[in-house]
Amino acid sequence: MRYRTVGGLKVSAVGLGAMPLSIEGRPDEARALATVHAALDAGVTLLDTADSYHLPGQEPGHNELLLARALAAYGGDTDGVLLATKGGRGRPADGTWTTTGTPRHLRTAAEASLKRLGVEAIGLYQLHRPDPAVPFEESVGALRELLDEGKIRLAGLSNVTADQIVRARTILGDRLVSVQNRFSPEVRDSDPELRLCAELGLAFLPWSPLGGISRSSLDGSSGLAAAPRFAAFHEVARERGVSPQQVCLAWLLSLSPAVIPIPGASRPRTIRDSAAASELTLTEAELTRLSEAARAS
Question: Which residues form the catalytic set?
Fold first, then answer.
């Protein structure tokens, strides 16, 4: 496993997006725990969760509790693991995703996450999504208060624009360490945010990084997408004798040292394959083929 940094902390170049372990179609607990343990065995030290990763209207915080149990049951060293969670979204019984970014809600959510994770302070706490009904500075101000009180160690943002990153940085300073936006061969809307993160020294954590290669858990399936325009990823994979997903993650890692993908997984073999992408070095010719395919999308 190769490593990168989040706020000065060394973490694995590929993280684990734990959401599929707790939402619709989730595995049983034994397989879920085995998946987390396989990630740790493979050198993954960034585990991404959120209080809203649970079945609609049921078991709030399920994913956080699951990760806490997985870490407690793991036989190896977990001192270097960075637990990253998020607050500001909800999953009511109708299956929608709500957004609540009031300072009061974020404080309550962070304190609940702290208890579920069973840690003295949350390693990385992220605003899950800006709330259009709440001034952005107020939501970010809640993160600053949590930092000042020692309840969270580092702060991050998710689903934000470049302007919001700049505004948050004026409030949080160098305690803002990461941005988690959707980014993949298929979804390149956050190119400006990626460039800004690289310029500012922030980690950029692509969620759903396999878009165009595999479907996101949010799409209801993890099966391969039949997208001819991304054939180059499959072709390079066949030539290298690896999976298209591994090629995709290696391509993402090549874009910038700021990039730390967090692919989802619900099986041990899946996260082992993803983790191996950190060791896959693509040639300049291969990277050009893949980037041209991504731009064509």
Answer: 53
